[in-house]
Write a structure and sequence with these properties.
The complex is a heterodimer of chains A (112) and B (180). With 112 residues, chain A is mainly α. Chain A contains three helices and no strands. Chain A starts with a helix and ends with a helix. The chains are: A mainly alpha (112), B mainly alpha (180). At the A-B interface, helix 1 and helix 2 of A face helix 2, helix 3, helix 5, helix 6 and helix 7 of B.
Chain lengths: 112, 180
């Protein structure tokens, strides 16, 4: 066989240092993977929350900056008119209904 | 488990069954460890590097395309991490002027000479990490050229050329010590 001495040298070198992985290696590594995954998910959640809050504030800011007076006038006239106020209970009910529906659908279909 | 089964297992892990990754840790942990332990002096550092490699592989699992076996893919990740680690440790390796004229017959004779085993062992420790890995994967693990090329990130055609140069380098290291 070619390079017999070199092969033997490599074999002896490997066997001279009989290092082994500890028996709990798999367990420890899985724990580390789990922890890092949780940390990453938490970080992603924070980033998403911050993005949503900033976008919302920006949106509101832009609305107020450009249409602030018009909106204020609209709200005032709605309050003054009896018909405008009568719409509020219905709108509140719809809002609550859709929020609850969203909550249950999210719980049912989105896996954490 | 065959490569197709492993691909299915990877798909399941990516689908949320993270706990099934433990299979790869048990199956290939030692293989990856042997690759790293040959290059890294301490057991503890080798263990940490192997763990880093498995964590990195888990993070990049969605990029595994199956162009090599999962074991080979893991070895490549571990090898790259180890080389980066060794670079940070600023290890010193022997450089030899490979342009020196050496006859192939002399190299063949030396590498077949049983009385030179100890000298060859010493010479091997002076090789660069990629060179040590290459000869170990080729001679000790008996991996095919294709897998060696993938792990070391080189063209398959270059493996044989590299091997030829390493054999010559071993000869020159021993010759430099004046024992030839």
């Amino acid at each position: 066989m070619k390079d017999r001495a070199l092969q033997e040298a490599l074999r002896q070198q490997s066997e001279q240092r009989p290092m082994r992985l500890p028996s709990n290696f798999a367990y420890n590594t899985m724990r580390r993977i789990e922890k890092e995954q949780q940390a990453r998910e938490w970080q992603e959640r924070v980033v998403v929350t911050i993005t949503i809050v900033v976008s919302f504030l920006l949106g509101v800011g832009v609305m107020v900056f450009f249409y602030g007076e018009a909106l204020l006038r609209g709200v005032r006239s709605m309050i003054q008119q009896q018909e405008g106020i009568s719409l509020l209970p219905g709108m509140t009910f719809c809002l609550l209904f859709f929020a609850t529906l969203n909550y249950f659908l999210h719980r049912h279909y989105v896996r954490e | 488990m065959q490569q197709t089964d492993e691909k299915q297992l990877i798909a399941r892990i990516l689908d949320g069954h993270a706990e099934e990754y433990g299979y790869f840790l048990t199956r290939y942990g030692d293989d990856v460890f042997y690759l790293v332990a040959r290059l890294v002096p301490s057991q503890q550092d080798a263990e940490e590097l192997v763990q880093d490699a498995f964590v990195r592989a888990y993070d990049k699992l969605d990029t595994y395309t199956g162009e090599a076996s999962f074991r080979t893919w893991l070895c490549r990740i571990a090898y790259n991490l180890t080389v980066s680690w060794l670079r940070k440790q600023k290890m010193k390796y022997v450089t030899i002027d490979e342009r020196l004229d050496v006859s192939d017959a002399d190299v063949d004779q030396l590498l077949d000479d049983d009385s030179r085993i100890q000298q060859l062992r010493d010479a091997c420790t002076q090789l660069k990490p990629d060179e040590q890995t290459l000869i170990n994967l080729f001679y000790y693990d008996g991996l095919p050229m294709r897998d060696i090329a993938y792990i070391l990130g080189m063209e398959q055609g270059n493996v044989a050329t590299r091997l030829y140069r390493i054999r010559k380098k071993l000869y020159l290291i021993i010759k430099k010590k004046g024992t030839i």
